[in-house]
Amino acid sequence: MTESAATAAPPSVDPRLAELRRIAIVPALNEEHTIGRVIAELRAFDPGLDVVVVDDGSGDGTARAARAAGAKVLRLPFNLGIGGAVQTGFRFAFEHDYDIAVRVDGDGQHDPAQLGSVLDPVLRGEADIAVGSRFAGSAEAGYRSSRSRRVGILLLAWVVSRIVGRRVTDTTSGFQALNRQGIALFARDYPHDYPEVEATVMVFRHRLRMVEVPVQMRERGGGRSSITTLRSVYYMVKVLLAIFVGLFRRNVVPQEGTE
Amino acid sequence: MTPLKVSIVGAIASFLLVLVVLELIRSRRLRERYALLWLATGIVLTVLAAWRTGLNTIAGWFGVRSYPPAVLFAVGILFILVVLLHYSTVISRLSDQNVVLAQRLALLEQQLRE
User: Fold this and answer.
1) What residues of chain A, 23 to 62, have a C-beta less than 8 Å from chain B?
2) Residue A6: pLDDT above 50?
3) Domain annotation covers residue B105
4) Which has more pLDDT, B33 or A104?
5) Looking at beta carbons, which residues of chain B come within 8 Å of A234?
6) Which tens digit of pLDDT belongs to each residue from A119-129?
7) Residue B111 lies in a domain
8) Which of A113, A145, A182, B14 has its CA 20 to 30 A from that of B23?
9) Which residue range forms the structural domain that includes residue B63?
10) CA distance A86 to chain B (A)
């Protein structure tokens, strides 16, 4: 259905985008109430965008709702955690030769209408990966969250900024656009739980170009955040350890077709 | 007081454990998730072995007067028990997932043959 829809692309679709094979990767866990809307919004942004939903072992009707909305669905037999789920999507995109991928969460936090600005640096060839940041703009874009979570996000941003040698404001954002090189890197190697922080460092170590784009995020439309206050301390320690040890790894620049 | 040799050997051995764990993570043979307990074990034992007055004080709390390094053994054994218990839960989860995978594979194979 995506092929036929592509011919009726509204003028709002970027002409640079229209000639690329493009896919939206949507990780989802128990998101049956929001997933349909997210898919519809993705289609509204760009009818030629293929949508693949990675159902990370949901116990509800997430996979059914996603199929009903016309998405491809990769159903994981059990919960792999966000990193494993997202990487499944990148593998799919890599093996099916997509030129460009966007990642949008299934809970409705990320507004597909803002994809245009996230995609722009990648389409202009200025970045391999563009990340929608809640904090890159002037004011904090009205983002609300618990205090501990906020402190964690700021601390991680500070650590990552020191390591990569430039200012990164939002290391936990899953609202991203990637070109083929970015897809290839993440298809081969992607961190596990709470992956975006490590992935940011990885991107810089592989000398891919990453930029942040200011975006506004919405309140979660449903489901629960996978990160509770108690677990965030554990994740913080784990992620800092992973980043620290990762610095001592030899980095391999990804090449296409190695798998 | 703990014999000096015991402190030195204990601290070196525990510190080596920390280094080995870090190297295993670096070479991707050990995931961070499973390394944290080992790192805690190594760090706590290193500190207890090297900080001799501290070990004495702690031994005093537990009524160990004759031979403070016994506390080192006790703490070491406690950590090993926790690590083992943790691994038992990990193995249980893995075997559950393995069952699910095998079942999913059998169903897929049957669908493919039809």
Assistant:
1) none
2) no
3) no
4) A104
5) 36
6) 999 999 999 99
7) no
8) A182
9) 4-82
10) 18
Mean pLDDT (chain A) is 85
Residue in chain A nearest B100 by alpha carbon: A77
Q: Is A75 on the interface with B (CB under 8 A)?
A: no
Query: For chain B, what is the domain count?
Result: 1
A165 lies within 8 A of chain B by CB:
no
Handedness of CA A230, A142, A162, A193 (dihedral sign): positive
Q: Does residue A140 carry a pLDDT above 60?
A: no
Quick check: is B106 in a domain? no
CA dihedral defined by A45, A199, B29, B34, rounded to 10 degrees?
-90
The tally of CA atoms less than 13 A away on the side-chain side of residue A223 is: 24
CB contact under 8 A, A241 and B100: no
Q: How does strand A176-179 pair with strand A100-103?
A: antiparallel
Gap from B3 CA to chain A (nearest CA, Å): 34
Question: Which spans in B27-64 are helix H?
Answer: 32-50, 52-61
The verdict on residue B91 lying in a domain is: no
What mean pLDDT do residues A22-37 have?
A: 95
Structural domain boundaries in chain A:
2-246
Tell me if A77 and B35 make a contact (CB, 8 A cut-off). no
Which candidate, B3, B80, B95, places its Cα nearest to that of B41?
Answer: B80
Residue B7 has pLDDT above 80, yes or no: yes
Query: Cβ distance B53 to B4 under 8 Å?
Result: no
Minimal C-alpha gap between B5 and chain A (Å) = 32
What is the average per-residue pLDDT within B43-68? 91
Q: What pLDDT score was predicted for residue A145?
A: 63
Contact A249 B26 (CB under 8 A): yes
Q: How far is it, in rounded angstroms, from Cα B28 to Cα A250? A: 12
Task: Classify domain A2-246 by CATH number.
Answer: 3.90.550.10
Could you say which of A192, A238, A248 has the minimum Cβ distance to residue B36?
A238
At a CB cut-off of 8 Å and minimum separation 6, what does A233 contact? none
